[in-house]
Amino acid sequence: MHIRAGVAYGAENTCGVKIDWRSEARAVTAAARMSEKTGRDLEAYPCAFCTGWHIGRRMTAEERKEFAS
Predict the structure, then answer these.
(1) Global pTM?
(2) Which residue blocks in the chain are alpha helix, DSSP H?
């Protein structure tokens, strides 16, 4: 689902200058810390353009439905 969304939103928005977390576990931990610190609902996702993981806003229910199929 996140890979499809990444392709749809493009490399600049999905990968761009974001931190390349080398493991899902590290990205998930960082997303939780950043969410707590900023008060924003963030999540880790696999990148469609590099081999790493990034952190971004949590996908909306509509986006999840759109990209799940």
Answers:
(1) 0.86
(2) 2-9, 11-14, 24-38, 61-68
Helix axes 61-68, 2-9, angle to 10 degrees: 100
- List the chain domain ranges: 2-68
pLDDT in tens, 10-60: 999 899 999 999 999 999 999 999 999 999 999 999 999 998 999 999 999
CA distance linking residue 49 with residue 28, whole number of Å = 19
